[in-house]
């Protein structure tokens, strides 16, 4: 039986693996053993499941595989971050970024192959949406990079790679449960962040999840007009509707909503913009990540000066909005989400280049 006709166990949760064991005449705890081997120990072949009876291992190997997305490319940055191009079972390709620091490492995972949201500053938008990723493909990105890097330090996960996570919410939440299960991958929920361009109805749905990571909102503008120009999704879910959803969001004690704000010189970086952002966030327990734009020379936008970023930060701080300056990682390795994937594909689906790439950053939650 070829690997194509065998089912991948990566993506199955404990209950599903218990059921699988039971269907094969094994006690439920055998399923839990498989779960621990795959997610906690990183087993990649049934030979490594030595706590299972040999006959069961053989039966499993006939019908199932333990497969991660395949690493097709790996580009290292001078700052130590690594951008992976991963191939999925059907040939779809996604990017995953690994950002090690002194006492922690951050993984930026993709939730979709391509994206339908069409933010004007994002290279992934040029691909259009190919398809949603499965929970196994999201957890598998993490497992593949962990197997490649063997991180010793604390691991954070951000779903800020390719795709809009809230448009693939059910699969994203199952992946989050796999990532966060202390009996499996064991990444604390406090160290997992899901980022959205502002899919308003899904924000409320996300807020009702029992097992819920942190939420970040990609804001990037201080007026409706400005946001619509950068993020056409704003026509469907306006800034006003987005902030209403944020105000209604059920924050836990001491939790804050993170607002990501990519600063572009002369576009959205004035003191007036900062004052408007402060007004918009009034009444929301929020913090703001200021991300100076990191674009290539071919693109028409530039990062603001450090003085401008500091001035913007001061306006927010004076209005008691915590604001942190976040420098993009991997600036020398096509740091923008989707660029590597785009470079590996034949034709983008939009002729116009975007104004500025999406940035991979280590957010406050990642610290
Ligand atoms: S920034 Fe995110 S939501 Fe917007 S097009 Fe890119 S991947 Fe999609």
Can you walk me through this structure?
The chain is α/β, with parallel strands linked by helices and 367 residues long. The protein has two domains: 3-65, DNA polymerase, domain 1 (Orthogonal Bundle), CATH 1.10.150; 70-366, Aldolase class I (TIM Barrel, Alpha-Beta Barrel). Helix content is 32%, strand content 19%. The chain has twelve helices and 14 strands. The chain has helices at residues 14-23, 28-40, 54-63, 135-149, 169-180, 200-207, 224-230, 233-236, 239-248, 271-280, 306-318, 339-343; strands at 7-8, 64-65, 70-76, 82-87, 93-100, 104-108, 112-114, 129-132, 154-159, 192-196, 214-218, 257-263, 286-292, 323-325. It has a ten-stranded mixed beta sheet, with helices on one face. It has a two-stranded parallel sheet with strand order 1-2. A two-stranded antiparallel sheet has the order 7-8. Helix 4 runs parallel beside helix 5, helix 6 packs parallel to helix 9 (239-248) and helix 10 (271-280) runs parallel beside helix 11. Residues 346-367 have low confidence and may be disordered. The chain binds iron/sulfur cluster. The site of iron/sulfur cluster has 13 residues, from loops.
Distance between the termini: 46 Å
Could you describe the largest sheet, including whether it forms a barrel?
10 strands, mixed
CATH architecture term of the largest domain: Alpha-Beta Barrel
Helix content: 25-40%
* Total of domains: 2
Rounded mean pLDDT is: 89
Radius of gyration using CA atoms only: 21 Å
- Largest sheet: spatial strand order: 3-4-5-6-9-10-11-12-13-14
| Number of helical regions | 12
Estimate the global geometry from the Cα principal axes.
elongated
Protein structure class: alpha/beta
* Bound molecule types: iron/sulfur cluster
| The first-level CATH class name of the largest domain | Alpha Beta
| Order of secondary-structure elements | EHHHEEEEEEEHEHEHEHHHEHEHEH
Proportion of residues in β-strands: 15-25%
- Tell me the total number of β-strands: 14
Question: What's the CATH H-level homologous superfamily of the largest domain?
Answer: Aldolase class I
Kindly report the CATH topology of the largest domain: TIM Barrel
């Amino acid at each position: 039986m070829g690997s194509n006709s065998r089912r991948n166990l990566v993506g199955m949760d404990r209950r599903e693996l218990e059921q699988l064991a039971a269907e094969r005449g094994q006690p439920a705890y055998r399923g839990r053993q498989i779960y621990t081997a795959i997610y906690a120990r990183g087993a990649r072949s049934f030979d490594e499941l030595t706590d299972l009876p040999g006959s069961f291992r053989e039966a499993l190997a006939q019908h199932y595989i333990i497969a991660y997305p395949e690493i097709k490319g790996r580009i290292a940055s001078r700052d130590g971050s690594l951008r992976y191009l991963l191939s999925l079972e059907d040939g779809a390709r996604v990017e995953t970024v690994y950002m090690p620091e002194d006492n922690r490492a951050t993984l930026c995972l993709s939730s979709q192959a391509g994206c339908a949201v069409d933010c004007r500053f994002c290279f992934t938008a040029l691909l259009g949406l190919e398809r949603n990723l499965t929970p196994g493909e999201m957890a598998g990105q993490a497992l593949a990079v962990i197997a490649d890097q063997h991180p010793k330090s604390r691991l954070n996960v951000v779903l800020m790679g390719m795709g809009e996570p809230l448009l693939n919410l059910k699969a994203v939440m199952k992946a989050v449960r796999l990532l966060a299960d202390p009996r499996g991958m064991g990444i604390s929920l406090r160290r997992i962040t899901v980022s959205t361009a502002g899919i308003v109805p899904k924000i409320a749905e996300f807020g009702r999840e029992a097992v819920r990571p942190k939420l970040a909102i990609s804001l990037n503008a201080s007026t409706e007009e400005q946001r619509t120009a950068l993020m056409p999704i704003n026509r469907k879910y306006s800034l006003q509707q987005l902030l209403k959803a944020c105000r209604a969001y059920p924050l836990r004690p001491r939790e804050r909503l993170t607002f990501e704000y990519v600063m572009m010189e002369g576009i959205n970086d004035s003191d007036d913009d900062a004052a408007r952002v402060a007004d918009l966030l009034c009444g929301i327990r929020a913090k703001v990540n200021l991300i100076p734009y990191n674009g290539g020379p071919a693109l028409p936008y530039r990062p603001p000066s450090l003085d401008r970023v500091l001035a913007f930060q001061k306006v927010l701080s004076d209005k008691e909005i915590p604001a942190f300056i976040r420098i993009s990682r991997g600036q020398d390795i096509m740091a923008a989400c989707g660029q590597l994937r785009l470079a590996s594909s034949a034709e983008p689906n939009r002729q116009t280049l975007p104004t500025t790439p999406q940035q991979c950053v280590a957010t406050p939650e990642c610290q």
